[in-house]
Amino acid sequence: MDKENFLSVVNKMKLKNKKFFPFPIYLSIIKKYKKFCEINKVVKLIFDKIHVCDFSIETKYKFSKKEKKTIGKKIFKTNSKKHPGYLYFEKENGVFLSGKILNFNKNAIKHINFSKPIEIKKRIKRLKKIVGFHTRNIPHKGHEWIHSLGVKKCKNILIQPIVGHFKFGEYSEQAVINANKYLVRRQNLLNKKQKLSHKFFFSFINIFPKYGGPREALFHALIRKNYGCTHFLVGRDHAGYKNFYNKYASQKLCIKYEKKLQIKIIKYKSPKICMYCKKITNKKCICKNSKNKNSLLDINGTKIRKLINRKKKLPEYLIDNKIFENLKVKNILNK
Predict the structure, then answer these.
(1) d(CA 68, CA 75)
(2) Domain extents for the chain?
(3) What is the Cα–Cα distance from 308 to 312, expressed in whole angstroms?
(4) Cβ atoms of 85 and 210 closer than 8 Å
(5) Residue 162: phi, psi to the nearest 5?
(6) Across the chain, how many H-helices and E-strands are there?
C-alpha cells in the first residue's frame, strides 16, 4: 500500500477507493537497501533464494517514531513492547514502498507453501455453503469439535492452516500440513462410509501472523471470502496474543462488519472437555459426575506442545493418536 491507502486503512478501515479493508499491507526495506530503491526503478523480489517477481517502485514513504506509536496503537490496541506484532512494526526503521508487481514467476508457487484462490474456487464452486477454518496448529479434539459445528451449519468445510514464520516452540510447518491433511482424508473416508454428503477440503496459505486480534480476524475472514467460502469460523481470541484482547472481541468485530466482509460469521463459545466422561462441549456437561464446577477444562494447545516436548504419550481424549502417528516429520516443534 502507498501512504494514503495505508493511513486510510488504519484510520477508517477503507482503501482510498472506499472499499472495505481492515489491515494495512506494506512492504518495508531496511536502510542498507534504501539506495537501491528509487522511484520508477524495477527491483527483484526474492523469497528463499527464489525469484518471485519484479517490483516497479511508485512511491516511498516513512513514519516518525511518534507516528508509529499512534498507528501501532490503532492497529494493535496497545503500545506494549511485549506484544510481538506491535514490536515488529515499531522496529521497522527503513522506508516503505508501494508499486506494481511485474513478471510474476508462477513456478515460484511450486516451491512456496501457498494455495491459489482460483484453484480452490474451482473445486468448491458447485457448493451452496462452505465454511472456512483458520488454524496454525495440529488439530486436537477441540478443533475437531469446531469442525463438526461448522459442518452442521454448512455441510462443507475448508481446513486452511497458515504456514511459514513459526516461532520457537511452535509446531513446524510440515507438521501442521501433514496433520491437517491426514484429518481431511480421514474425515472424507468416514463420511463416505456413513453415506454423508459432507465434504472436507484442504489448502494452506503462507502469511505472516501479526497477532492483531480483532482487526486481523477481519483480515482472515476477508481472505476466506476471496477463496470462495460462504461462512467463516471465528473463535475465542482469534488472532490474539496472551491477554491483550478481550476474550470474544474478534467475534464481536467480525459480526459488526459481516455485511462489509460479504461472508457469514459463525461464532461459538470455546469448547471444553469434561474430565469425567471425556466428552467435549461448550455448554454444561450432562454426565452424572459433572456437577463439580471444575469438571470442564480448556483443551490447551500449549499443554499438548509441552507433552510433545517432554516426549510424553498424548491422551486420546486430547488428540487423535492416529493424527499424531501420521505426522511423519522428524521435528514436530521448531527448535
Answers:
(1) 10
(2) 3-111, 117-209+303-325
(3) 6
(4) yes
(5) -90, 140
(6) 11, 13
pLDDT of residue 186: 96
In this prediction, residue 291 carries a pLDDT of 66
State which amino acid sits at residue 112.
I
Which pLDDT score is estimated for 294? 67
What Cα–Cα distance (Å) separates residue 95 from each residue in 2, 37, 70, 325? 11, 9, 17, 46
Residue with cell 494514503: 4
CB 115 within 8 A of CB 72: no
Whether 117-209+303-325 and 3-111 are alike in CATH topology: the answer is: no
**pLDDT average per 10 residues of sequence, the chain (335 residues):** 98 97 93 88 90 95 94 97 94 90 85 79 93 94 96 97 75 89 96 95 89 97 96 94 94 97 96 89 80 76 82 86 80 78
The pLDDT assigned to 239 comes to 94
Q: How much is the pLDDT for 269?
A: 92
CA separation for the pair 217, 257 (Å, rounded): 11
| H helix or E strand, kind and range, residue 217 | helix 213-226
Following CA atoms 91, 92, 93, 95 in sequence, which dihedral angle do they give, to the nearest 10 degrees?
-170
Rounded Cα distance, 10 and 70, in Å:
10
CATH 3.40.50.620 fits 117-209+303-325, yes or no: yes
Query: Residue 14 carries which DSSP code?
Result: B
Which residues lie across from 99 on neighbouring strands? Answer: 57
**Spatial CB neighbours of 267, under 8 Å, sequence gap ≥ 6:** 234, 235, 248, 251, 254, 255
Helix (H) or strand (E) holding 12: helix 3-12
Give strand pairing partners of 162.
Answer: 205
Which CATH number applies to 3-111: 3.20.20.210, 3.30.565.10, 3.40.80.10, 3.10.400.10?
3.10.400.10
